[in-house]
Design goal:
Number of domains: 2
Number of strands: 2
Strand order of the largest sheet: 1-2
Helix content: 55-70%
Strand content: 5-15%
CATH class of the largest domain: Mainly Alpha
CATH superfamily of the largest domain: lambda repressor-like DNA-binding domains
CATH topology of the largest domain: 434 Repressor (Amino-terminal Domain)
Radius of gyration: 22 Å
Mean pLDDT: 75
Shape: elongated
């Protein structure tokens, strides 16, 4: 069987610092005051940040306790890549290496649903009971907001408000990191 691996290059030091802190590009943009587009271009090696933006990025990381010497991670003559660089490599691979015939490897590939459920419940515990239930009903039971509103004898607008507030609270807290960890357990 042929397998193709596709790799997109990222600026490794910046990418690792974001992962270590559990930040997204948007979070770095918010904390540094640098636009999300600029952060994306810098991370994807499209261009080198300006000295002003370098300073702002370094200060954002420093406030979080992460040291990143942004000046030294780009060569002086770095102009940026004209387009996203993608490396594709296709190779013939034995099916046994993919776990098709190897029970030990296959078992390690199973999603760890118990860990994922535990992490998700830990995140939802930070919400009010009503908010957590609406998230569960919508995302785990597959109900739409109209059905949830009808079942709870509450207006569709109220359900939508509660749902959106719960999502904002999850996004704005450290719970987003826990939810990402839960998704890593499943994927």
């Amino acid at each position: 069987m042929k397998v193709t691996a596709v790799t997109k290059f990222k600026q490794g030091d910046l990418y690792n610092a974001l992962k270590k802190l559990g930040w997204t590009q948007a979070e770095l943009a918010k904390r540094s005051g640098v636009s999300q587009q600029t952060i994306g271009h810098v991370l994807n090696l499209r261009n080198k940040p300006s000295p002003f933006n370098i300073d702002r990025i370094q200060k954002a990381f420093a406030k979080a306790g992460e040291y990143l010497d942004v000046l030294t991670i780009w060569p002086e003559d770095f102009k940026g890549l004209d387009k996203s660089v993608t490396v594709e490599q296709t190779k013939e691979v034995d099916l046994a290496l993919l776990g098709a015939n190897t029970p030990v490897l296959h078992d390690t590939m199973k999603p760890n649903l118990d860990d994922a459920r535990r992490l998700i419940e830990k995140s939802l515990a930070k919400l009010t009971e009503r908010e957590a239930n609406i998230i569960r009903w919508k995302h785990f039971d597959g109900k739409d907001l109209n059905k949830i509103a009808d079942d709870g004898k509450i207006s569709r607008q109220s359900i939508s408000t509660i749902y959106n507030r719960a999502l904002r609270r999850l996004r704005c807290s450290t719970q987003e990191k826990i939810l990402r960890e839960a998704m890593d357990c499943v994927v």
